Amino acid sequence: MNELALLVGATLSAGTPLAIAGMGLLVNERVGVLNLGAEGTMLVAAVSGFAVAFHTGNTALALAAGALAGAALAALFGWLVIWLNTNQYATGLAVSLFGAGFSAFVGIDYVGRQLVQHGAPSIPVLRDLPFLGPALFQQHPVVYLTMLLAPLTALFLYRTRAGLVLRSIGEAPDAAHALGYPVRRIRLAAVMVGGALCGVSGAYLSVVYTPLWVEGMVAGRGWIALALTVFATWRPARILLGAYLFGGATMLQFHLQAQGVQVASQFMTMLPYAATIVVLVLISRNAAWIRLNMPASLGKPFFPGS
Fold it and tell me: Which GO terms describe its cellular component (predicted)?
């Protein structure tokens, strides 16, 4: 029972960066912008957050630095695709490649260095509960904030005027422009918010989840987060659920190895990525269902006055 509680706790922690990045990409795609640069953005934020944490010892400041780095890179991406009307797919891939190279270059001096550990955070009293204590109440505050992020995002999108405007731009930007809404500025703001969330996700990886810097440490999580938005049909609650499912698949390899199950480590390592491909294949079999849920202007350029 204790092993299961530890697996649940590890699943929540492993799913958190996927959930944060997925929420950010959801905001991007709801406004009609497809950002394939999540992987590179998370890498730049990861090295930025680690550097700040290494020199200051302040986790909150490191997460803020990650958010700032992610927002800055997203602003560059937004300027290219929203104002210069470059291809969103090609530009996103370029940002991802740039982020991988830039983070590797900047992070050379930090390879092999670790952050000072301050002990595992926990909630007094509740942490001593059987099963629930180690499963739910010995997590970093970011994990709980991520759980709160999903309902807050849903509340914003479906219960506020600003959320309605954002979704309307994702569905019909020409109509929103005709009504007087600054479509480009709103899209840029949404892209920067999404980039900031991807930045927090990357910084969480290098500062909290595995407090060290290794080149390429995001390890495909940006791509999984992109797949999550489709898997979740652009719904915040489903993104949270999907993130924990993929987090559980990631942690299952360590749990089985601890139990002495003889399974090739390479097979277990590829499990979350194989699961991503299987999910996307199953979803793609129903194209009409995807079109019904996908923002109508996703990936399409907008030309004011055209």
Answer: plasma membrane
Half-sphere exposure of 280 (CA within 13 A, CB side): 14
For the chain, give every domain's residue range. Answer: 2-114+121-293
Residue 251 confidence (pLDDT): 80
What pTM, to 2 d.p., does this model score? 0.91
Main-chain phi, psi angles of 301, to 5 degrees: -75, 155
Residue with tokens 């005709």: 178
d(CA 282, CA 262): 29
In which residue ranges of the chain is pLDDT below 70? 1, 117-128, 131, 257-258, 260-261, 263-265, 268-269, 283-284, 286-291, 305-306
Half-sphere exposure of 158 (CA within 13 A, CB side): 10
State the Cα–Cα distance between residues 213 and 284, nearest whole angstrom. Answer: 36
Contact 255, 7 (CB under 8 A): yes
Judge: domain 2-114+121-293, CATH 2.60.40: no
Q: Is the CB of residue 248 less than 8 Å from the CB of residue 11?
A: yes
